Amino acid sequence: MGTPAYRTRSGPPPMGMMTPMVKTLLIANTAIYLVLALGPDALSSLAIRVFGLTPAAFLGQLKLWQIFTYLFLHNPFGFEHILFNMLSLWMFGTAVEGAWGSQKFLRYYLACGMGAGLFVVLLGYAIDNPQAATIGASGAIYALLLAFGMLFPDATVFFSFLFPMKARYYVMLMGAIVFLSTMRSTGSRVSHIAHLGGLVIGYLYIKLGWDAGAARISRRGPGLLDSLRERHKQWRLRRARKKFEVYMKKRGSGPGDWTH
Q1: Domain that holds residue 244
Q2: Residue 152 near residue 4 (C-beta atoms within 8 A)
């Protein structure tokens, strides 16, 4: 993935900004990477075997957790993989989270990452090796790239820091590259299938309004525990007001003599 820089029509964004969920994801991914990179090779191999996404293990052995955990593993034997993923997460993720809010951003990130994992599982049997393990957040990162292009289509993206183009065209270019790479990726150590899956799931997620269900749930109002807490809070406020009114009456001033 060509690492881009970008600026909007109103000028460069605050590149030092770090939104809460992006910060959390950066810390989690980096911490896991450091543990595996600094630990013995046997630990890295075990982690990839257990928590990486292997289609044969996911379906054949029902290791269903792999569809989630593979997102937080990166190649511990080099730094390019996590460097480019985390740099892209920071650059695109801060803008997307700033536009959507942390909860919607996280739902999108995880849904697209796991959706990309399903692509890996299904196409692993069709055109790739179902015994190969896939690791990394690249599927979710490509989904963030797509969201950025749809939210800020006229933002200028510098492909490889050299060639300026509008975000919408950058997304189209990357989509074409990923699609062609997927068709000829047999045996490659780069999971172009996950990249393609992230783009496809991200597009469907946004266009079909898959987040609307979660939004409706959040608009239904507080749950039972929240309602009980709110009622207790209102009761305490009424009780305090009555005590204050009694106090004011004793001082010869009725409740109608004060404002708030």
Answers
A1: 225-257
A2: no
